[in-house]
Amino acid sequence: MQRYTYKVVEVREKLLGGKMSGDKLEKLLNDHAADGWQLKAITSAEVKGRVGPGGVDGLLVTFERPVQ
Fold first, then answer.
1. E-assigned strands of 1-68?
2. pTM to 2 decimals?
3. How far apart are the C-alpha atoms of 45 and 40, rounded to whole Å?
4. 20 to 30 A Cα–Cα from 66, which one of 3, 6, 39, 47?
5. Which Pfam families match (predicted)?
6. Contacts (Cβ under 8 Å, ≥6 apart) of 58
7. CA angle 35-29-34, nearest 5°?
């Protein structure tokens, strides 16, 4: 039976250079794919910001890869 490990990356607009763009998200996906991670899901979410108790709009990007 195949087993998997998962990685969840919080992506805030600031991490993508101020405004979310397809090019910057594509680079994030390709960088993880180069390390053997496969995209499992992208979810819109309020993620924790750097300052204050509130969150900011962002994405939760979930990757998986087989356990080696």
1. 4-12, 38-48, 55-66
2. 0.76
3. 16
4. 47
5. DUF4177
6. 10, 11, 12, 13, 44, 45, 46, 47
7. 20
**What is the distance between the alpha carbons of residues 22 and 30, in angstroms, rounded to a whole number?**
12
Q: Is 6 helix (H, G, I), strand (E, B) or coil?
A: strand
Query: CA separation (Å) from 5 to 2, 8, 47?
Result: 10, 10, 22
57 pLDDT band, cuts 50/70/90, is confident
Q: CA 17, CA 4: separation in Å to the nearest integer?
A: 31
Place of tokens 């996906």: 29
pLDDT at 59: 86
